[in-house]
Every structure is written in structure tokens, then in C-alpha cells.
Design a protein that fits this description.
Helix content is about 40%, strand content about 15%. By secondary structure, it is of the alpha/beta class. Strands 1-2-3-4-5-6-7-8 form an eight-stranded parallel β-barrel, surrounded by five helices.
Amino acid sequence: MRAASGDIEVPYMCIGAWPWGDKSTWHWDPKELPAVKEAWEVLRQAGLNWIDTAQAYGDGESERICGDLFQGLPRDSFKIQTKWFMVPNLTNIFSPAHAPAKMLKESLERMRLDFVDIYLVHGHIHPGSIAQVAKGLAECVESGMTKAVGVANYNTKDMLQMADELAKYNIPLGANQCEYHIIRRHPEVHGLLQACKDRGIMFQSYSSLAQGRLTGKWTPEKEPPSSYRFSSYPMKDLEPTLKVLDDIARARQTSISAVALNYNISKGVIPVVGVRSPAQARQNMRAMGWRLTNEEITALDKVSIEGQTTRLWQQG
């Protein structure tokens, strides 16, 4: 990933920490923490040492849990990415240019760190202009609180505008993170993924397994919880997609989730995928070290879904 002081090396997969501490969507139970710690060790030992969190996740609890995981580790042994919660609160309204730095400082206190590796703008609904936000991100880099900066949920136009504004401070836009997977190919179909490739911007996918819909866990008889709101198609509608995933998984003697994640990787996308247990960690790791063939990708494309944007959140 590009950064002001040189490229940052990260793995081909990122650990999603949204579930950690989040009760409203993921129904987090503190009793899960030992399993998360064990999963982190499994992943870290395999070289998957990059975590994605956010100020909004569990009202900061996800960041605190990340801080617990990092205790006693050399700072160069892991990568951490968090996101500025840019909703119209008092800080963001009355000091739009300084708000990213102020809130990043609070994140660092929760994680007990001196800096993060990557700091993203969580969405495009910030009260200040893109120019003001770019100035705030530049402050974060220049103060040493982050190495790289990026955005999330931005469409092509706003992403390129942010890149141009950051360039005034000699800072590259490192990443754009949007929902992307077989049943939400909107960023690919509408040119956002190609724009990222053209400009050297890393494209990251969140909800990379469609909140479990692409794992085989959910069925028409057992729908996901209503709080799992991204790409919330009835499971009956996803049966053609899941059949092709299952056919490829059986032929390759791997899991459906590994095929779904490899689809993203094969498209040049870095998947962010949630982990709550060692079993999930090992399942996700099965996506690494191989690539789908062109024929397999074509078969999956034929049963894919374009998906949509939303007015308030998902512009990219």
C-alpha cells in the first residue's frame, strides 16, 4: 500500500474486527474474547498479521480489544488499520479539518499505540468538504499518528477528488474499502475497481463473505439475523450462486468460503474478513496460496449479482 514515507507491505487478506465488541449487529459476548485471542495467534503465526477496526465498532470496544491483542508484541510484527467515525457529531461539525486527528489520538489511547499503519475515512457523509478532510488526514500523517491514509465507501468521483487533494500535501491515497464479493460486484461493474488499479490505490473489500451468506452457514430454512443487513437477499435467491461455489469447492477439496474469498483475491481485491474463532481463522486461511482459473471465475461471474449503492452509506 502506498504511503507518504514509502510503501507498506501487508498480507493478501486482512482480519476484520467489526464483530469484536459490537453487540448491535454481531451480538458480541465478552466470553468470546479467548477464542478471538486464539484465532489471532493462529493467523499471526501464518503471517496474517493485519487487523481492520474502526472507532465506530462497538463504540471503541473493538479498538480496545485490538490493543489487548497487541500487548507484548514488537510494533513491527503487526499492522493495524482503523477508521475515522465521520458522522455529524460536535467535533466533526465545529472542527472538520482537525477532527480526524483529534479522534485518531483517542483511538491510539484505546489501543495503547503510538501510531496506526493506515487510517481510513469511514464514509463520505462527513460534514466538512473533501478538501477539509484531506487537510485533516495530512495532519495525521505529518504528526506521525499514521503512515498511510485512505477512504471507505467512496465512489470513483469522490475518491479521485480525495486523491487529488491529498497530493497537495505529497500524500498518496492508499486505499478505498467498499463492500465487494460475488453478490455485490457494483464496484467492479461501475469502474471503481479499475480506477483504483489505474491510480495505484488498493481496493479492499469489507463484508467479503456477505456476512456469512457465502459460507454455507445460512440456508432458506435458516436465514441470517436481520441485523446482517449488507446484501441481505433471501437465501433462496442465492441458491444458484452457492451451487457453483459448492461445485468448485468440492472439486478443489476446499470450503465454500475459501472459494468466495479467493474470488476477491483473484480480482485484485484485498478481502477484509471477520474472525471470531480459530476454526473461522483456519477456514479463511484456506483461500491463500492458489488462484481460481479463468474458467472458474467466468462460471462465478455468471451467477454473480451487481448489487446497489445506498443513499447515505454505500456510495462505492
